[in-house]
C-alpha cells in the first residue's frame, strides 16, 4: 500500500547539487545507502534532483543561497564551533518532529499514531536535520538559530514530495522505513493476491491495472486478499477504496480469520448477498468487532426481543452500527424502553423500526426526552414510543418544543395537547412554519371548532394543495358538510362515490370533474 507514489517521492533522497563549500557545489549523486537501488526487492529508477532546491524553494527562499557570509570552515569548526552546532541541532530536532507530527495529522493520521510514527522515524528526522545543516551551514556554525518559519518553509517541499500520492497508512510506512521502501514481510506474503486479475461472479474479469483507485492499497503491485474478497462479493472498486479509507485495518485482516466469518454471519441473519456492500459501506468498522464477544451476544439479545430475519434486514439496512456497540450499551437502551413501559416484544418492534435509538445517550438524550413529555402532561410514553419510535431521534429544542408551543399559543390545553400528540405523534416532526402554520390558517378559514383537530390531528399530515383544499372546496360547492376525518381519510374513488351519493340524496346532482391525487405528506 505504501509503494504507490514512492518512485517519485523518493527522488528527494538522491542529490546532485548538495552544499559542499557553497550552496551549489556538486555531489556525485550516489544513493544514501549502498545497494539502495539494487538488490532484492528494489527496482526503483530515480533520477537525480537537487536537495538544495527541494529545501530552498519557498516564499522566503527564491534562487539565492541561504548561507550568508561568515567565517571559513577552518575558522568555525573548532571545539566551540562544534558545540554550538550540536546545541543548535538539538534545539531544531523538536521543531522538526513537531512538524512531522502535524504533517501526518493533516493527512488524516490520528495524533497518537502520528506521534509514535515520528518517534520511530529516527532516520527521517536525522536526514531532515542534515538537510537543514547543509542549507543553513554558516548559520549553524556561527551559532545563529533558525526560526520555526525558516525550518518549516525549507522542509515543506521535501515532505510534500515524500508524501505525494500516499494514503495515510502508506505515509506512516514511508516515514518509519525511510529511506528504504516499506517491505512486505515474508510471513505476511500469503495475505496478498499475486495475480494481475481475477474473475468475480458479479463483476466478471477484474484487471487490477484498470482500477487506479485500488493502487493506493497495493504492496509492490499486490492487492491484499481481504480486498480481493470484497471485490469477489460484488463490491465495485470505488466502494472497496471507500471501505479502506474508512477502516484502513481491513487491508491487513485475514480473510478466513476475520472478514469472511463476519460476512457469513450477516448472510446467516437473512441478509441477501447483494445487500452486503451497502451494509459494509455504511459501517466497515464491523470488521473490527469480535464476532464472539460483541456481535453474536447483541444479536442474541435482540432475538430474545422478537427480532427475526425480516427484522434484521430492516435493522441493518438502516443502522448496521448497532452491531458495533457493546452488549452493555444495547442492554442499557433495552432497560430504558422497559422502564417507560414497553414489553420485550414491543421493544423489539421499536428497535426494528428505529434502531438508531441504540446509539443515543441515556442521560443526554433519552431521559431528557422522557422527562419533557412527563412535564407537559404526556404520561403514556409507552404508546407514544410504540407508535412512533422515530420521535426519540427528534431534537427537543428544534422540533418538539416549537410544536408544543405552537399549539399552546393557539389555545389548546395540556390535556388536549397530550391527546393530539398520542393520536398523531408524527406531528412533532413537521415544520412549524412550513407545514403547521399554513394548514392552521386554512383550518381557520374553514370555520371549524378547534376540537376537530383534537379528534383528527392527522389533518396536518395531508397535503394542503393536493388533498385538503380540493376536497374541502368540492364539498363546500355542493353544500356538503363532513368531518375532517371523513373528508380526508377516504381514497380518491371512495371520496367521489360518497360525495355523488350524498349529492343525489339532496337533489344536487352535478357534473363532477374533480381530479386529485392521494398525496399524503
Characterise the protein shown here:
Pfam families: mTERF. InterPro entries: MTERF (IPR003690), MTERF_sf (IPR038538). One of its GO terms (molecular function) is nucleic acid binding. By secondary structure, the protein is mainly α. Among the domains are: 6-180, no CATH class; 184-259, no CATH class; 462-521, no CATH class. Helix content is 54%, strand content 2%. It contains 26 helices and four strands. The strands form two sheets. It has a two-stranded antiparallel sheet with strand order 1-4. Strands 2-3 form a two-stranded antiparallel ribbon. A hairpin with a 3-residue loop joins strand 2 and strand 3 (204-207). Helix 4 runs antiparallel to helix 5 (111-120), helix 4 (79-106) crosses helix 8 (148-162) and helix 5 (111-120) runs parallel beside helix 9. The protein starts with 5 loop residues before the first helix and ends in a 16-residue tail after the last helix. Residues 1-79, 181-187 and 508-515 have low confidence and may be disordered.
